[in-house]
Design goal:
This protein is mostly helical and 391 residues long. It is built from 16 helices and 4 strands.
Length: 391
């Protein structure tokens, strides 16, 4: 794997961002050190950049991809005495953050109000904190988060119209907008309900259960079934549902969106595959795998990928398919992986690496995916827990 273009720490003010900053690059170097690809000393300048300023500790600003949770997530892959001591402190703080945010969420539910995306999503909400606690085996905090997600799936009535409990008054930009009257239903892994679905299912597979968890998984899956277009290899899901579409019960999207991890059919299908595995529902698992395979065979969908990033580009697609193939009923997804890797490399050959250095929109994430899928490279470090892909 060519690493000549690995970024160097030259910017300040972005240290604690796992999404686009130094934390994401530190994660890359921690994984490379763990797998013997480079000396642990390569991590030091990036760890220093990540920890240059005070750790962001305001509960409302602490999501998995920013601030204290992002720092803690990276340190969990750096097996040093210093990192372990820091993690003990950060885990105690993140337990307090989680309790604070859960309290606000339950108060909101008690009042019958709609949630914001930032309350529950993977990137900045409680699903992301839950993913961290699952990764760290923080049992109490994980259990409380799962219980909240179960409650999130209970229906809510707004203006005499029944809506799923995760329906948000936000726009897809995570803030209210007159362009989105009545809010929307978000199906994406990054900001929508398939993030909670993946967490609920992965926790169930690992033996972490709370009352109502299975019912919540089925409730989400039933809603996804309602908005699926087509069957088998022709199945696809939209990224968003408008209030008008929900009222009419009819989708207005002309066809499948970009086949990305964050919003497209690949991420949605992987979450449903995990649900099928957790429930022992082979029909759902097979349907999800068929939809993903059909997506990969559709050049019209693949043509919508215009960058190489993990979040919404080729690298994210490769990582999603790689994880899904490892759990699949048959070898069809695995057979498609070599061609996907070729497409990723062709894109990089023609367009070069992104300008950013981060995990989700830059070079660090691309290098992690390439490392994970490299021939004869045994990567035993599940860095993609933060994507809820590892299962």
């Amino acid at each position: 794997m060519n690493i000549d273009a690995l970024p160097t720490p030259t910017r300040s003010g972005w240290g604690q961002s796992l999404y686009s900053g130094a934390a994401g690059v530190a994660l890359l170097h921690a994984v490379r050190a763990h797998t013997g690809e480079e000396d642990p000393d390569a991590l030091r300048p990036w760890a220093a950049a990540m920890l240059k300023g005070p750790i962001q500790a305001v509960p409302e600003a602490c999501g998995l991809y920013e601030g204290a949770p992002a720092v803690a997530y990276v340190l969990s892959f750096s097996h040093t005495n210093t990192a372990e001591r820091s993690l003990a402190t950060l885990d105690r703080y993140l337990a307090d953050v989680t309790r604070d945010r859960l309290g606000q969420a339950h108060t909101r539910i008690d009042g019958g109000a709609l949630p914001t995306l930032g309350e529950y999503d993977l990137i900045s909400g409680l699903t992301g904190l839950g993913a961290y606690h699952l990764h760290r085996s923080n049992q109490a905090e994980l259990g409380d988060t799962l219980a909240y997600l179960v409650r999130l799936t209970e229906p809510i009535t707004v203006d005499a119209q029944p809506l799923p409990g995760w329906w948000t008054s936000d726009s897809p930009d995570l803030k209210p907008s007159p362009r989105w009257p009545g809010g929307h239903g978000n199906l994406g892994v990054a900001h929508g309900i398939t993030g909670p679905l993946a967490l609920l299912a992965t926790a169930l597979r690992r033996g972490h259960t709370v009352p109502g968890q299975t019912r919540a998984i089925i409730r989400i899956c039933d809603w996804l079934d309602r908005w699926r277009t087509g069957t088998g290899s022709r199945a696809w899901w939209p990224g968003l549902i408008t209030r008008d579409e929900h009222r009419r019960g009819k989708l207005q999207s002309p066809g499948p969106t970009r086949p990305s991890w964050c919003y497209g059919t690949p991420g949605i299908a992987r979450a449903q595959q995990l649900a099928g595995l957790a429930l022992g529902d082979r029909d759902r698992q097979r349907q999800a795998e068929q939809a993903l395979s059909g997506c990969l065979a559709d050049d019209r969908q693949l043509a919508q990928l215009t960058d190489a990033s993990v979040c919404h580009g080729w690298a994210g697609l490769v990582q999603t398919v790689s994880r899904a193939a490892a759990d699949a009923i048959d070898d069809e997804l695995a057979a498609r992986l070599p061609h996907l890797n070729i497409r990723l490399e062709e894109h990089l050959d023609h367009n070069g690496l992104p300008h950013g250095a981060g995990l989700m929109d830059g070079t660090a994430g691309i290098h992690l995916v390439r490392l994970t899928t490299a021939v004869n490279t045994a990567v035993s470090v599940p860095w993609d827990h933060c994507l809820l892909l590892a299962g």
